[in-house]
What does this fold into?
Amino acid sequence: MAAAVDIATIARWFTDGSHWQGSDGIPHRLAEHLTICGLSLAVAVGVALPVGIILGHLRKGGVLAENIANLGRAVPSLAILIIAVPFVGIGARPAELALIALAVPPLLTNTYVGMAGVDEDVRDAARGLGMTGWQMVVRAEVPLALPLILAGLRTAAFQVVATATLAAVVASGGLGRYIVDGLAVRDNVEVVCGSLLVVALAVTVEVLIAGIQRLAVAAPLRNPKSYTTDEQLEESVHETVLDPAA
Amino acid sequence: MRPFSTRRRNRAAVIGVVALAVTAAACSSSSSSSSSSSSASSAGSTSTAAATNTVASQLVLGGAPECPQRPYCIPGLQKSYGITFKSFKPLDSDGPLTYTALTSGQIQVALVFSSDAQILADNLVALNDDKHLQNADYVVPVIRKAKDTPGVASAVNAVSAKLTTAELVALNKSVSIDHQDPQAAADAWLAKNGLATKSQGAAGTTLTVAGFNFAESNVLAYLYGDALKDAGASVTVKPHLGTRETLEPGLASGQIDLLPEYAATALLYLQPNANAAGQDISGVVAQLKPAFAPKNIDVLAPTNALDTNAFAVTKATADKYGLVNMSDLAKPAP
Amino acid sequence: MLGASQPWVEWSWVRTHLHVIRHDLWEHVLLTLIAIGVGLLITFVLALGARAWRPLEGPLLAVCGTLYAVPSIALFALLVPFTGFTTLTAEIGLVGYTLLILLRNLLAGLDAVPEDVRDAALGMGFSRWRLLTRVELPLALPALFAGIRVATVTTIGLVTVTVLIGEGGLGALLYEGFNDNFFRTEMLAGAVLVVVLALAADLALVGVERVLTPWTRREAG
It folds into this structure.
């Protein structure tokens, strides 16, 4: 009963008009997906950025902030998704909780390291100019930390868009529905097409934020290698988390 | 998932898409019907005429993802009752997602299984199937011919003889509501009904018993599986294996040997144009046997346990729209 | 709260299901070990290839990166039509996800070997092979280990997703509890054990790294 997966059936699925309308149509599912992701990212940014900026500026809580990304990796999103259900019910809510929990660690770590990595000379200069702590943060430190912060945003956004597919497991909407529902009825074409849609969206979001990175960060600052620690080893470890722009 | 650099990322993406396309093309065979591809969309669109201002058109239906393709669900609702719901939300097969969605108001009508104890526990109303869309869905074990030995058949039939609708509901309750393990519940039932005495009637046979992806089917799988174990067979039980799309091919190919099926739904799955409406169980089984025969699958004795598909609403919804029968859903919306 | 009026931990259930928990835990560990083992093997082969022929490095990393970019459930789902609901499908996906981290770290580690050390070895008459095995690989070990740590923790998390294609390890506890009317004890068992396993694995690997590369500590200290 299941159709074979090949170029023809995939093309047919995408060109089928009924797949572009209604509550199970691509535009609607896409909108659901983006809504969940957007909300979660917004909350994650709202939580992680202020905390990271403050901790980084004060040079406090470094051990926790630097390692929270590692800790975050140890908690699988599916676990948070499922455990959240008894608390917040099914649908978009548990998905948003899980995605916020997913996005905060890379954002927090990157923001902290970016802020804490600002050269002491720059801070001295700022103090010398008579800047208050707040002014130092806004006018000197954050602009210098921006590359890493945006890199963290890129990582977080990509992960959120990708992981939102799991939300379908708790009766949420989004592009993951094509994968989960297709798996349920062995409609392999639907599964493959859903997967392609998710990958396309994730890559698009990636590229968009990379574009923002390019615009927002002045050219001389684009290569922030000087803000990570010296040892190349730590750099390669941090690359996995921080990932400065190309 | 941490990407490495934008340029490489884009290159990687292009390579990836090309690789996927090449792989897909390499694995292409003559594509069979793509009827499955326009599956879930039919529910959302408002293509058909008649159903635009009924009670149903104001309500959201929710249930197993395969509902839009099943004759007992969306297509049948349109054909027999002339109703189309506002939209369809894919959830699970009579599972916690469906019941939670119904009780929390995310859906107003749920596709459920009539023997599920959760209907009573959640104070729901299962609408009366007055136009007989649903059929004689009695539990009936089907088995591969190669494994259908007299010893095996007699062990299975002994269980079937004692299984009634009331027993089935009680079994469901102990698993879904009292949180008993399906296997423990099954074993307790076998013991209670004097079917747990060891014998060697089925010795020498190896069987794989499978269950669909909902709780009741798993209890049934353990029921038959452990009964066969007590009769001396070597049994593997594979619960939660999937929907018919997975299990029917598995049965035909020999990956599984015994499956507790549901008579009318199985018949319509194999032969969508079969005459199952209004037939009693013997009429359905009489058509089921020749339907399974070409695949070398035998149909054993049916049980008296009815578990048919049903559509449930909350008491509040039933009161609000005056819903008792399914055809009440076709009444004009207030 | 959903499924309310049940305590979060019903110890009686835990006691009667220790064998299930143990089985799922073991399955989880096994899936992870296989993924990391096969991943390392493939990584070494790929790294050798990239070293032998430089132009290969870019495309190799690009392919691994592409695999990494595909969301986990999508990757497993894409494989199902071809390899079915099997352990093989799960492992192909899991191994694929380790490759980018391991390969990139190994290559970075090999690249970080100081030029003068390489020259000295070559000057002493080391063959390319001896150079690789006696000098470059040991020096690249810390970088590789960092990668193994990340890959292991990531894989442990990803194994839970395989429950959606019929495998699962501890994800099975999580998902079956979920399907069993949101049975909290079972769900919690799965969630807690997965996190504990990931943290334990990370710590264990830190310990192993200490043992295998004592010179890094001496340098830093």
Observations:
- Chain C has one domain: 27-208.
- DSSP finds ten helices and no strands in chain C.
- Chain C touches chain A through 53 residues (CB under 8 Å).
- The mean pLDDT of chain C is 85.
